[in-house]
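Sample pair:
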Amino acid sequence: MNKPYIIGVTGGSGSGKTKFIKNLVNHFSNEQVCLISQDNYYQPRNTQPVDENGVLNFDVPESMDLEKMVIDIKNLLQGKTVILQEYTYNNPHLPGNIQAMEHIMLSRRIIRDEQERGYDLDDVLYRYQHHVMPSFRKYILPYKAFCDIIVNNNEGIDGAIGIMVAYIENLLQKSSS
Protein backbone atom coordinates (compact mmCIF):
# COMPACT_ATOMS: atom_id res chain seq x y z
CA MET A 1 0.00 0.00 0.00
CA ASN A 2 1.26 3.47 -0.85
CA LYS A 3 1.69 5.99 1.91
CA PRO A 4 -1.60 7.87 2.28
CA TYR A 5 -1.65 11.64 2.52
CA ILE A 6 -4.19 13.66 4.46
CA ILE A 7 -5.35 16.97 3.04
CA GLY A 8 -7.62 18.97 5.30
CA VAL A 9 -10.03 21.56 3.95
CA THR A 10 -11.58 24.09 6.29
CA GLY A 11 -13.35 27.41 6.08
CA GLY A 12 -16.39 29.31 7.18
CA SER A 13 -19.92 28.12 6.56
CA GLY A 14 -20.87 28.95 2.98
CA SER A 15 -17.27 29.49 1.89
CA GLY A 16 -17.48 26.72 -0.73
CA LYS A 17 -15.77 23.78 0.98
CA THR A 18 -18.19 21.14 -0.29
CA LYS A 19 -18.16 22.50 -3.85
CA PHE A 20 -14.37 22.63 -3.78
CA ILE A 21 -14.01 19.05 -2.54
CA LYS A 22 -16.61 17.63 -4.94
CA ASN A 23 -14.86 19.31 -7.87
CA LEU A 24 -11.48 18.14 -6.66
CA VAL A 25 -12.34 14.46 -6.17
CA ASN A 26 -13.96 14.31 -9.63
CA HIS A 27 -10.42 14.43 -11.05
CA PHE A 28 -9.40 11.17 -9.36
CA SER A 29 -10.55 7.57 -9.09
CA ASN A 30 -11.92 6.04 -5.88
CA GLU A 31 -8.63 4.14 -5.58
CA GLN A 32 -6.66 7.39 -5.61
CA VAL A 33 -8.68 9.63 -3.31
CA CYS A 34 -10.92 8.99 -0.32
CA LEU A 35 -13.18 11.75 0.94
CA ILE A 36 -14.15 11.86 4.58
CA SER A 37 -16.33 14.76 5.71
CA GLN A 38 -16.63 16.08 9.24
CA ASP A 39 -20.32 16.64 8.40
CA ASN A 40 -20.82 12.89 8.84
CA TYR A 41 -19.73 13.05 12.48
CA TYR A 42 -22.44 15.18 14.06
CA GLN A 43 -23.69 13.92 17.40
CA PRO A 44 -27.36 12.85 17.46
CA ARG A 45 -29.74 15.80 17.39
CA ASN A 46 -31.05 15.05 20.90
CA THR A 47 -27.53 15.42 22.34
CA GLN A 48 -26.55 18.64 20.53
CA PRO A 49 -25.49 21.58 22.69
CA VAL A 50 -27.92 24.47 22.94
CA ASP A 51 -27.25 28.19 23.27
CA GLU A 52 -28.65 30.55 25.92
CA ASN A 53 -31.92 30.78 23.94
CA GLY A 54 -32.36 27.01 23.69
CA VAL A 55 -31.36 26.85 20.01
CA LEU A 56 -29.29 23.84 18.92
CA ASN A 57 -25.72 24.84 18.12
CA PHE A 58 -24.10 22.66 15.45
CA ASP A 59 -21.09 24.97 15.13
CA VAL A 60 -19.05 24.07 18.22
CA PRO A 61 -16.66 21.13 18.60
CA GLU A 62 -19.01 19.51 21.14
CA SER A 63 -21.57 19.01 18.36
CA MET A 64 -19.25 16.50 16.67
CA ASP A 65 -18.15 12.96 17.47
CA LEU A 66 -14.50 13.83 16.97
CA GLU A 67 -13.27 10.65 18.67
CA LYS A 68 -15.08 8.55 16.07
CA MET A 69 -13.66 10.69 13.29
CA VAL A 70 -10.10 10.19 14.58
CA ILE A 71 -10.66 6.42 14.80
CA ASP A 72 -11.98 6.33 11.24
CA ILE A 73 -9.04 8.37 9.92
CA LYS A 74 -6.57 6.05 11.68
CA ASN A 75 -8.36 3.06 10.16
CA LEU A 76 -8.15 4.60 6.69
CA LEU A 77 -4.43 5.26 7.17
CA GLN A 78 -4.04 1.54 7.96
CA GLY A 79 -5.85 0.60 4.74
CA LYS A 80 -9.06 -0.48 6.45
CA THR A 81 -12.53 0.19 5.08
CA VAL A 82 -14.69 2.75 6.85
CA ILE A 83 -18.44 2.97 6.29
CA LEU A 84 -20.12 6.25 7.11
CA GLN A 85 -23.74 7.20 7.40
CA GLU A 86 -24.26 10.44 5.50
CA TYR A 87 -25.55 13.22 7.72
CA THR A 88 -28.65 14.84 6.24
CA TYR A 89 -28.67 18.13 8.17
CA ASN A 90 -31.90 17.17 9.92
CA ASN A 91 -33.74 17.23 6.58
CA PRO A 92 -35.51 13.88 6.03
CA HIS A 93 -35.96 14.66 2.31
CA LEU A 94 -32.24 14.61 1.54
CA PRO A 95 -30.39 11.45 0.51
CA GLY A 96 -28.47 9.57 2.85
CA ASN A 97 -9.58 26.04 3.83
CA ILE A 98 -11.54 27.84 1.80
CA GLN A 99 -12.33 31.46 2.46
CA ALA A 100 -14.78 34.00 1.13
CA MET A 101 -15.96 37.40 2.27
CA GLU A 102 -18.51 37.18 5.09
CA HIS A 103 -21.41 38.63 3.09
CA ILE A 104 -20.80 36.07 0.33
CA MET A 105 -20.71 33.21 2.86
CA LEU A 106 -23.94 34.43 4.44
CA SER A 107 -25.68 34.73 1.07
CA ARG A 108 -24.59 31.20 0.11
CA ARG A 109 -25.69 29.83 3.47
CA ILE A 110 -29.13 31.46 3.22
CA ILE A 111 -29.73 29.93 -0.19
CA ARG A 112 -28.30 26.51 0.71
CA ASP A 113 -30.03 26.18 4.07
CA GLU A 114 -33.40 27.16 2.64
CA GLN A 115 -33.17 24.94 -0.45
CA GLU A 116 -31.30 21.91 0.87
CA ARG A 117 -32.10 21.87 4.58
CA GLY A 118 -35.51 23.51 4.83
CA TYR A 119 -34.44 26.25 7.27
CA ASP A 120 -36.28 29.58 7.19
CA LEU A 121 -34.50 32.92 6.88
CA ASP A 122 -34.88 33.89 10.55
CA ASP A 123 -33.33 30.60 11.65
CA VAL A 124 -30.42 30.93 9.21
CA LEU A 125 -29.69 34.52 10.27
CA TYR A 126 -29.91 33.70 13.99
CA ARG A 127 -27.55 30.74 13.68
CA TYR A 128 -25.16 32.71 11.49
CA GLN A 129 -24.92 35.58 13.96
CA HIS A 130 -24.93 33.55 17.19
CA HIS A 131 -23.26 30.27 16.18
CA VAL A 132 -21.55 30.24 12.79
CA MET A 133 -19.46 33.41 12.88
CA PRO A 134 -18.47 33.23 16.55
CA SER A 135 -17.34 29.61 16.03
CA PHE A 136 -15.53 30.52 12.80
CA ARG A 137 -13.67 33.32 14.57
CA LYS A 138 -12.81 31.09 17.54
CA TYR A 139 -12.05 27.70 15.97
CA ILE A 140 -10.96 28.35 12.36
CA LEU A 141 -9.67 31.88 11.79
CA PRO A 142 -6.86 31.73 14.41
CA TYR A 143 -5.27 28.83 12.48
CA LYS A 144 -5.26 30.55 9.09
CA ALA A 145 -1.57 31.43 9.43
CA PHE A 146 -0.73 27.71 9.67
CA CYS A 147 -2.40 26.77 6.35
CA ASP A 148 -0.27 25.64 3.42
CA ILE A 149 -2.73 26.93 0.83
CA ILE A 150 -5.54 29.46 1.13
CA VAL A 151 -8.15 29.50 -1.61
CA ASN A 152 -9.97 32.77 -2.11
CA ASN A 153 -13.48 31.77 -3.17
CA ASN A 154 -15.12 35.15 -3.59
CA GLU A 155 -15.42 34.67 -7.34
CA GLY A 156 -14.58 31.05 -8.13
CA ILE A 157 -12.36 28.04 -7.48
CA ASP A 158 -11.32 26.79 -10.92
CA GLY A 159 -7.72 27.98 -10.63
CA ALA A 160 -7.35 26.51 -7.15
CA ILE A 161 -8.80 23.18 -8.33
CA GLY A 162 -6.16 23.03 -11.07
CA ILE A 163 -3.37 23.72 -8.59
CA MET A 164 -4.63 21.11 -6.12
CA VAL A 165 -5.12 18.48 -8.84
CA ALA A 166 -1.52 18.98 -9.99
CA TYR A 167 -0.28 18.86 -6.39
CA ILE A 168 -2.13 15.63 -5.61
CA GLU A 169 -1.12 14.02 -8.92
CA ASN A 170 2.50 14.82 -8.04
CA LEU A 171 2.11 13.21 -4.61
CA LEU A 172 0.47 10.11 -6.11
CA GLN A 173 3.19 9.83 -8.74
CA LYS A 174 5.95 10.06 -6.14
CA SER A 175 4.29 7.46 -3.88
CA SER A 176 3.90 4.96 -6.73
CA SER A 177 7.56 5.20 -7.84
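The two ends are 12 Å apart (CA to CA).
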